[in-house]
Amino acid sequence: RRSSAYSNSSGGGSLAGSHISDSALPNTTKRAWYLPDQLVEHQVTGVISLCCTIYALFVPDLYWIATGSTQADYAVFTLTFVVFVLLFFDVLLKSLGQSNYMPFYFGLDLVALVSF
Questions:
Q1: Taking the mean position of all CA atoms in its chain, how far away is CA 18?
Q2: How far apart are CA 18 and CA 12, in angstroms?
Q3: Residuewise pLDDT in 10s, the chain (116 residues)
Q4: What is the pTM of this model?
Q5: Distances (CA, A) of 116 to 31, 75, 77, 78
């Protein structure tokens, strides 16, 4: 008779009743949203999010203070829209991938996104 780590006392092939702990299973079986979690915690994503946040805080206001003309309005509006979309996807990925993100940090980011 063959012994299998995945067989239980009834001889079936399920994990129910087996002696395998959750720590022996791969990370992807523990979390349904593994890819958003990887994206959110990646260093490049953090840098992009930081740059977008700094842009959102300062650039539109400084643009309106520094220029009275409307020559670059289209470029600033387009860049502001791109930053808005990037920040929206950042909020979406964080809400899917981080378990401690909801509801407090999600609420703060949502208010900031709506006010942007």
A1: 34
A2: 10
A3: 444 444 444 444 444 544 555 555 455 445 555 777 788 888 998 899 999 999 999 988 888 888 866 777 888 889 999 999 999 999 998 888 887 888 888 999 998 898 88
A4: 0.65
A5: 32, 17, 12, 14
